[in-house]
Amino acid sequence: MNANKPVSKVLVLDDCPAHADAIKRFCGEHNLIALKARRHRLMTVLRSNIDLGGIVLGEDYGGSIEEASAVAARIDALRPELPIILRRAGAANLDGLPAPLRQAVCATFNADDLDTLRAAVDEFIFSIDFPNALVRGISDITETRLGSLFKNLTVTWDTPSVVRDRIIFGEVFSLIPLEGAWCRGYMMMQTEERPLLEILGNGNGNGGVDPDGEPAGFRDINSLLGELTNLIWGAFKDRFLDQQNMAPRAVVQVPLLVNHKHRYISFGSNNPQLCFRYRLTDDNTGQSFTIDQRFVFSLSWSPEDFSEKTTDMDALVEAGELDLF
């Protein structure tokens, strides 16, 4: 895998061992994390909050093309945002497929020609190329702010990923707009309430009690997540968003849609999201909680205009912070 590029999780549904092995090798070479699920647990997995970038489906999954068609239709109904890429035994096209399967898949490939699979992955999963400096900078900014708020906890993180899911993680989330010369969208921070309350109850993060000496409650979590969001947003804005270079333009807005029952949120765009997951652990008790951070550039995305603020070396030398070797 390319260590400088975000990964994406794909669910591989293929009963043929030879093809499954070839697809697994392909995934390892192209920044994809291949996952599999037992057939009778597939819908349970898809209803979970696992963050996926797409589905790779064998046309004979389940024993026949009709069964594969039924599976594809169920996936499309439950998670329509996930691209389904179909492995065909013959020509890599839609000819001869049952109507439900033809309507559900976005691309096809033949296992003997994985170049077509690579093209489909680039088009439907990695359709946005996130600059390495942006990915690295977000990790640096967030790790530093988490460390300042939770001084007694150890911060670890997963490899950043590209996801197309619209599933909400946990019970608490914050949203803050991002707007600059090269992007417009949102940063979303999400967490689960109970694990964080348990951590706060042990005195980690703002003391674990409110100003009146009462045990930490959901309002403390709201306040903490809001503070963390503001700290990260401020650093992100200072490092990446140069407002002075923005050209005048018509401002376009789209509604955000949240369905709490189905833990679903839509930003009105099919663009994939850049996802970071941080795990904070109390080394004394072993208790931990997760922060899910997503960047959704749904309103504007021009990576060719991306720039990162750099430090003035001469100023650091004059201030005595840096010496010439």
CATH architecture of the largest domain: 3-Layer(aba) Sandwich
Strand content: 15-25%
Give the C-alpha Rg.
22 Å
Return the CATH topology of the largest domain: Chemotaxis protein chec
Number of strands: 13
Instruction: Quickly name the level 1 CATH class of the largest domain.
Output: Alpha Beta
Poorly predicted segments: 206-211, 311-317
End-to-end C-alpha gap: 36 Å
| Biggest sheet architecture | 6 strands, antiparallel
Give average pLDDT, whole number. Answer: 86
Counting DSSP H or I runs of 4 or more residues, the number of helices is 9
Fraction of residues in H or I helices: 25-40%
Form type: globular
By CATH, the superfamily of the largest domain comes out as CheC-like
Alpha-beta content class: alpha/beta
The tally of structural domains comes to: 2
SSE order, as H and E?
Answer: EHEHEHEHEHHEEEEHHEEEEH
Could you describe the 3D structure shown?
- There is one protein chain.
- The chain is α/β, with parallel strands linked by helices.
- The chain is 33% helix and 24% strand.
- It has nine helices and 13 strands.
- The strands form three sheets. Strands 6, 7, 8, 9, 12 and 13 form a six-stranded antiparallel beta sheet that branches. A five-stranded parallel beta sheet has the order 2-1-3-4-5, sandwiched between helices. It has a two-stranded antiparallel ribbon with strand order 10-11.
- β3 (54-58), α3 (65-78) and β4 form a beta-alpha-beta unit.
- The longest helix has 23 residues, at 218-240.
- The two termini are 36 Å apart.
- The model is unreliable at 206-211 and 311-317 (pLDDT under 50).
